[in-house]
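W.,

You were right to be curious about this one. When I first looked at the sequence I had no strong expectations either way, so I just let the prediction run and decided to look at it fresh. Below is the sequence, 118 residues in total, followed by the output.
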Amino acid sequence: MTVYYFGCWNQAGHYLHEPSGKTIHAAGPFTDGSLDGTFPPHIHKPGGGYREILEDETIASLAYWRGWTVLAMWDRSVDKRGGCNAAFVAEGEHTHAEMWALARQNYPQIVARLKAAP
């Protein structure tokens, strides 16, 4: 099973990657555009008419979508601008722990820099 990574590799710019680092345009039902900012945890700051999303880099969310599992988090380890995020996607249904294990196995250099990694 191939696990894909969406996010910054070594420089700014969010793309979908294979374990080799090769940039790809789609994996299963996902494209770069469908992953960008869609699945990270959305925590809203209370108060006022405008609710700001807090981009907490220390937590990750797990989602199941169209037969795939997405482990996503906010990530400014490479690109310091707001809205920067990362995700690992794998076909099938996997637990939070299984997704982190797959991510570590396939992308150890990426996982090592993520604040949300357990």
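Here's what jumped out at me. The longest helix spans residues 96-106. And, maybe more interesting for your project: The radius of gyration is 14 Å.

Coffee later to discuss?

I.
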